[in-house]
Amino acid sequence: MTADIPTLYDWAGGAEQLQRLTSVFYDKVAKDSVVGPVFRNMSPDHPAHVAAFIGEVFGGPPIYSRKHGGHREMVAHHLDRHLTEEQRRGWISLLMDAADEVGLPDDPEFRSAFAAYIEWGSRLAKINSNLGATCDLEEEANAAMGLGRAGRAL
After folding, report:
1. DSSP conformational letter for 153
2. Bridge-partner residues for 153, per DSSP?
3. What is the pTM of this model?
4. pLDDT, tens digit, for every residue of 1-31?
5. Residue 96 and residue 25: Cα distance in Å, rounded?
6. Considering the domain boundaries, does residue 150 fall inside one?
7. Which of 3, 84, 116, 131 has the most CB atoms around its CB within 10 Å?
8. Are 59 and 118 spatial neighbours (Cβ–Cβ below 8 Å)?
């Protein structure tokens, strides 16, 4: 990226701001009757892991890939969860509310990119959640990233 065009990671405020986002978000999730049950057994580290994942896909350091296995591992976490459309939409709503609460930029360009990513990612999570645990994770991860079977761009 050029110096005058920040990454979404930098524009969001970096790691600390994404940590705040996921902390506020998962506090909301815990109180939600639709989305909450999905995360009932999440580890205390889950918000930090998600912040690292979001940071990485927004152009920040590859912490999630180095420490937690990358996109393939994220896909694996969603297998056999059987997420519903109501849960997916609730997840988006809670995340957008958390973004407002922590003060993520309200610039239309940033919010458009942010909303597009969470819409795209949540739809993939829902699709992956309805796949059996025996699916080909590499193929699924490549498909999610717009790559073919050999890991090359389509």
Report:
1. B
2. 147
3. 0.79
4. 456 788 999 999 999 999 999 999 999 999 9
5. 9
6. no
7. 131
8. no
